[in-house]
Amino acid sequence: MKIILLGAPGCGKGTQAARIVQETKLPHISTGDIFRDNIARKTELGLKVKSVIDGGDLCPDELTIAIVKDRIKEDDCKNGYLLDGFPRNLVQAKALDESDAPDIVIQLFVPFEQLERRLAGRRLCSKCRSSFNTADIGERTDCPKCGGELYIRGDDNVDSVRERLAVYEQQTAPLIDYYGKQGKLVSIDADKTREEVFESVLKVIK
Ligand code: ADP
Ligand code: ZN
Prior knowledge:
α1 packs across α10 (about 195-205) and α2 (about 30-40) packs across α3 (about 45-55). The protein has a 5-stranded parallel beta sheet, sandwiched between helices. A 3-stranded antiparallel beta sheet has the order 6-5-7. The chain has 2 domains: about 1-120 and about 155-205, 3-Layer(aba) Sandwich (Rossmann fold); about 125-150, no CATH class. It contains 10 helices and 8 strands. By secondary structure, the chain is of the alpha/beta class. The relative contact order is 0.19. The structure holds adenosine-5'-diphosphate (ADP) and zinc ion.
């Protein structure tokens, strides 16, 4: 099964992706994770995209499309994939349709006002990778689950968050219509607990 997870920054794609992967064993392809991994390792690619990403804008299409196409050619994708964070605009969606069109596109919908709050208050654990929000854990700097050190993502500052949400509205939201017309879109109300959202997701993929 080829699945795309679609939704604004902060809608919970990463959280749901991790659970879908546990359930389906599909390879999780997150372009954001790929870029961040390259930034952390200071690769040529990482150095190229760091400032764009920290500013909240999209990386160049040509580069991003090439990365995803190469990744999908790998052996573990022969039974499908779970794409998270790609495609993010029509150019990317059309490129994917030419080579590895998805079977289903799951849109996670969260009201706009919630997103800003979720992103600006996001704290990530450097050890167990869990994600928290200051609304729940306050300003503590140690992970409530494992004690690891919490950090703030480079693009989770107020200015970049605004830019990311604007980019989503302008460039990514049109994909809802694009996949809707292809009959591939399923929209899920993601303004609920992680567990409730996952239950809805499971119904779709089963
Ligand atoms: P978010 O949490 O905002 O959904 P991601 O972790 O998916 O973000 O991606 C973080 C950043 O990586 C994006 O803001 C963008 O700069 C870059 N990026 C990720 N995927 C793509 C893509 N498909 N095309 C262009 N840039 C991308
Ligand atoms: Zn932790």
